[in-house]
């Protein structure tokens, strides 16, 4: 069985990505990050999802992206927007996906695993530059230029199975795969007990996705 590393935030998209990787027959090793995010309860969701779906292992890596600031997700002095915004929003965390994938690349060399799955999405996304197909293609090229595995003929593949899907399509795939989305959380500013705010961009995308999919949304929103 081929091994894969799956980046798992505890949100809807990453849970679906893990389920799809498992369906493809990979032995999945989940990787989450405690990076100074204000919505740290997502790590509890990641633990639940990894256990329920059957990840072979689940590793939580602690790093400090809050040291750089510049994002409403890592700097509590910056408010999370509760209205739609244009351009790249303040919830963008500088270089986050690049850093996460670099950690997965390092683990992949030693595990070993040559397949890395990430739940980025370029359709129902929020303007993040590191959720685009161009970024995924560029990182895969970097991975195979920068690693011993890549330059010795054992290349990495970066999988982004949700990249071209609308949120409703992602939800339908997950339901078909048996995911309990009540175990996930997508909110940028949830309560300490895991209830979603219902007002941030991520909550709006999630709620609209369930509505479009015709699937009951199990999320507990404050409003």
Q: How is this fold's topology laid out?
A:
Layout: E1 3-7, H1 12-23, E2 27-34, H2 42-53, E3 57-62, H3 96-110, E4 115-117, H4 133-146, H5 148-151, E5 157-159, H6 167-176, H7 201-213
Top keywords for this entry?
223 residues, alpha/beta, Rossmann fold, five-stranded parallel sheet, 5 strands, globular
CATH fold group: Rossmann fold
Order of helices and strands: EHEHEHEHHEHH
Proportion of helical residues = 25-40%
CATH architecture: 3-Layer(aba) Sandwich
Percentage of residues in strands = 5-15%
CATH class membership: Alpha Beta
Domain count: 1
* Biggest pleated sheet: 5 strands, parallel
SSE-based structural type: alpha/beta
Strand runs, count: 5
Number of helical regions: 7
Overall geometry comes to globular
| Spatial ordering of strands, largest sheet | 3-2-1-4-5
CATH homologous superfamily placement: HUPs
Rg, rounded, reads 17 Å
Average of pLDDT: 95
How would you summarize this macromolecular structure in one to three sentences?
The chain has 223 residues and is α/β, with parallel strands linked by helices.
Describe the structure.
It is a single chain. This protein has 223 residues and is an alpha/beta fold. The chain has one domain: HUPs (Rossmann fold), CATH 3.40.50.620. Helices cover 36% and strands 11% of the residues. It has seven helices and five strands. It has a five-stranded parallel beta sheet, with helices on both faces. Strand 2, helix 2 and strand 3 form a beta-alpha-beta unit. The radius of gyration is 17 Å and the shape is globular.
